[in-house]
Specification:
Elements: E1 6-12, H1 16-27, E2 31-38, H2 45-58, E3 65-68, H3 82-85, H4 107-117, E4 123-127, H5 132-140, E5 148-154, H6 174-178, H7 180-187, E6 193-196, H8 198-201, H9 210-224, H10 226-229, H11 238-256, H12 276-280, H13 287-291, H14 294-321, H15 324-339
Parallel strand pairs: 1-2, 1-4, 2-3, 4-5, 5-6
The chain binds calcium ion.
Amino acid sequence: MPKRPTRLIIDTDGGIDDALALILALRSPEVEVLGVSTVSGNVRVEQAAINVLRVIELFDHRDIWVAQGLGNPLVRDPIRATSFHGTDGLGDSNLPQPRMRARKESAIDLMIDQLNKEKDHGLTIVCIGPLTNIAAVLTHSPDVSGRISELLIMGGAFGLSRYGYGNVTPVAEFNIYSDPEAAKIVLESGIRVRAVGLDVTSAPENWLTPRRFATLLGLLMVATFLGILLGLRTFIIRDYGMFSYPAAYFQRECFWQGELPFWNPFNHFGLPFLAQWNTLALYPPALIYLLLPLTWSLPFFCLAHLFWGGLGMYFLARDWTGHQLAAGVAGIIFCFNGLS
Ligand SMILES: [Ca+2]
């Protein structure tokens, strides 16, 4: 007999990742979404409801109830993440405004009603925003906690993996940081909680395997440097021909006249990014172009510099991904990026 889909309520603060989670749940045969409650967090609670309705209408799931929960954390002032999620919370995606409306009842009451109806199997509640709403449910109606079969939380940073550090402060993750008092109520309530923290959600192997990473970088290289790979273009155009040669010439002359040109604006022709070349005179291998004829010492210096940079990127990427191929592609890309 096919397994009965897990019935769940999603509690969300309306950000981009929340929309993706909602879409995944709507499209998954393993779960049945009964309702979506919104909470203050990434965006205001009203905007979160609008965002949920936009997604639900897009996927034609008008049977699911949507209701607003609490508009502020239990004790503190809200913090938002619109700089990350866009002013509308959905990356300013311009999805059409919804025709459906959120339910008039509070999401807290609807969740309590829904849980009271679930005498046999219990419901799973998935919280992907701050835990304000669920804390309010447990405070107003503690007896419903027995009808929550599982509470799944996307939140926290538990230091269990090398990625388990905070994204608001070094130790605090956004959802927990937004309403720590609510988190305390929920985590101490005794209900079965499974928390998926940044330890898991930030670990690159969970979203991009080294093989996919290498494939993406490889495709990027082909797309970006097609002309160079086909021999139709040379890469030594801008940095070498237009900027670095005159800058190096200027540096070399200064050097031989006993001056280090760090603050001399003539050395970067009024182009602030070229100021980086100033400090190159301090880089030990730079001695080669300061001491020897520029026509061959500067290209040699540039290529060696990129080679060492690429090698550094290789070791860094190998350390990050533990994957030789991905690290090799990253190293080559780094060199190409510097060459262009
Ligand atoms: Ca969220």
